[in-house]
Amino acid sequence: MTVTQRSSLLARTISTPIILIAILIAIALLAKFVGSGPFSRTIVEMFIRVMLVAGLYIFVGNSGVISFGHIGFMCIGAYAAAWFTIPPAMKGVTLQGLPSFLAHAQLPFLVSTALAGLLAAIFALIVGRIMMRLAGIAASIATFAMLAVINVVYSNWDSVTGGTGSIVGIPFYTGIWTALGGAILVVIIAYLYQISRSGLALRAGRDEATAAAASGIDIVRERHIAFVISAFTIGVAGAIYGHFLGVVNPDAFYLGVTFITLSMLVVGGMNSLSGAVIGVIVISTIIQLLRWLEKGIDLGGATLSIPNGLQEITIGLVMIVILMFRPAGLTRNREIVWRFWPVKRAQSAAEPVLRNEHAQARN
Amino acid sequence: MTAVLQIIFDALSLGSLYAIGALGIALIFGVMRLVNFAHGDYISFCVFAMLWPSIDAAAVVFAGNLPTFILIPLILAIGAGISVLSEILVFRRFRNANPATMMIASFALGFVIKHFLLMLFSSRPKSIDLWSNLSLPVEIAGARIPLLQVITIIITIVILIGLTAFLKRTRFGLEMRAAAENFTMARMLGVKANRVIMLAFAISGMLAAAIGLILATQSGTADIQMGVSVMLVAFIATVIGGLGSLPGAVIAGFLIGGVSVLMQVILPLDARPFRDAFVYAAVIACLIWRPQGLFAPKSAKQRV
Predict the structure, then answer these.
(1) Which residues in chain A have Cβ-Cβ distances shorter than 8 Å to B93?
(2) What residues in A contact B280, CB-CB < 8 Å?
(3) Is A4 on the interface with B (CB under 8 A)?
(4) What is the tally of helices (H) and strands (E) in chain B?
(5) Chain B residues closer than 8 Å to A134 by CB
């Protein structure tokens, strides 16, 4: 084993999450200094998307299986947050079917959010046990079917979920710092998973399934672990989103969010954590700029504005053009590393670290 | 007996839509490994092509007023046109990209088409009157079946026979089947890649237009969302049938239609709102039972 002679994996790759977290903190500070209400809300939405996309990345990026189902976990998390935190008096009216221990409970924010993530993770543990045997496009379709099942159940189980109508009265706990904290938490979890033994094994299985299996990697098991962890993070994101809007309804957690988060991941670079975060930041920024343009910008007396609806058309075209020129995403599936990192410099070259990691891990 | 006949016709006409949709997706997947999420938006585009752009609730029918024998070829041509155009402008540049990238590109294209329609027509569903006398029932062996259902099934059968004849009897069809089996090998044996792919897109677009015409006649409305739900089920059918297998896609389309209608009948009343959940659970079960699909072509098997 040569591992002892090399500096540890943690020391060589830690600059990536530090840079990403620094970027997120900088954005939060910017929002704080600009100080306008609508702008802060945009930034909170962006942080929640960072949670979703980085959480999605834990599974999709490491396993190479496109999942259309993860927004289902967001739905589970958001509804769980509603069940745990809406004042019991209100629940007695709107959600009469809740079991009594839920109907009378009102948990503090951190406990309820952790439980919301846990509920999503337990669900993933159960369904993943069956579904993770699938690979490739069959797995993608199975995850989509899972999303549809969750959506149908939450839309029709009226006494517990309020049906297709919205549940109101979720306390507003999410501000910019909560959302920032959530985004940082998910980035750290995603980073720790991708340098963990399971993460490296799963990436090996993604790149060379046969060779990985021959080296004793149980791909189905590693995929299942990633599925559960990412379900937890997305469940937490759902809870935070619920506390941000104060309202949940099942159709907010369906195809629209599924596709926008997947697009952000692929445009950023599906196989790297940096890609997940950068994808969200870039796409969110472009969307925001176009929204401002739609509203009109004052240019020395003359107002420059684009017609309504052009924003969505432009964002679609921008994504197509980015993918044309960078099929592997904006980051080209590499991680952002700080080249002057002391341990890194001692190494031979400024190569992309994680790309080569599985090769070394297998030796 | 009459109830059974009614169920069979319901199942067949719903299955027809899914089967035609699945065929359109499977054709393109076969030649370029692209899962075309824009397919649903081609369907909506073809429906809205019959209207004059306006944001009023009442639709201003334009092309829809043309006599049937001109209207149908025109809409089919529009479907083929937008499909081929998207190949030339977008998908051609993604020939060597990985499937995830192509999938997201197709989704982004669908997004653009959808919002283009939204900008011209607004999001309100519009009523549209196409051959409304077709919804009158006809009597078949004692059961009252809407004439449109019968016509839908007949049209589907005609499309399937025509396409089978095209694929089996003509040179283009032969090339296309060869390309679907093994694209690289087909090119080495002299099949022109661009021609085959454009042809696949054209046929797929025409199939989307056919669905659009049927849907618009059935529902009497033009709605931006109308293509998406058909496309999603069709996409599932393609995978269950075995990606790359055209007969598999058609059979799986009919199968899903049949299961949906059957569930509606046999589920207890309390569980009926959850019908789709049962259908999708059946989809997962089917995938776990046959991950390659029910009718996977031999070439789809992974070689190690």
Answers:
(1) 324
(2) 145-146, 148-149, 152
(3) no
(4) 11, 6
(5) 287-288, 291
* Cβ-based neighbour number of residue B116 at 10 Å: 18
Q: Is the pTM of this model over 0.95?
A: no
Tens-of-pLDDT digits for all 363 residues of chain A?
Answer: 444 456 788 888 889 999 999 999 999 999 888 877 788 899 999 999 999 999 999 999 999 999 999 999 999 999 999 999 998 888 877 788 888 888 888 899 999 999 999 999 999 999 999 999 998 888 998 999 999 999 999 999 888 888 888 888 899 988 899 999 999 999 999 999 999 999 999 999 999 999 999 999 999 999 999 999 999 999 999 999 999 999 999 999 998 899 999 999 999 999 999 999 999 999 999 998 888 888 877 766 667 677 777 888 998 999 999 999 998 899 988 888 877 655 544 444 434 444 444 444 443
Any B CB within 8 A of A310 CB: yes
Asked casually if ipTM beats, i.e. exceeds, 0.90, the reply is no
- Rounded-to-integer distance, Cα B94 and Cα A320, Å: 10
* SS3 label, residue B220: coil
Which of B89, B94, B96, B111 is the best substitution to test chain A (most A C-beta atoms within 10 A)?
B111
Return d(Cα A176, Cα A27) in angstroms, integer: 10
Cα separations (Å) of A280 from A53, A134, A259, A275, A285? 7, 28, 13, 8, 8
Whether residue A149 and residue B280 make contact (CB cut-off 8 A), yes or no, is: yes
Structural domains in chain B, CATH included, are 2-300 (1.10.3470)
Whole-angstrom CA distances from B245 to A28, B26, B27, B172 are 51, 7, 9, 17
A216 touches chain B (CB under 8 A): no
Q: Kindly state whether B287 is in contact with chain A, defined as any CB-CB distance less than 8 angstroms.
A: yes
Is the Cβ pair A142, B287 closer than 8 Å?
yes
Amino acid letter, B202: A
In this complex, the residue of B99, B105, B287 whose CB is nearest that of residue A323 is: B105
Interface A–B counts its CB contacts (< 8 A) at: 119
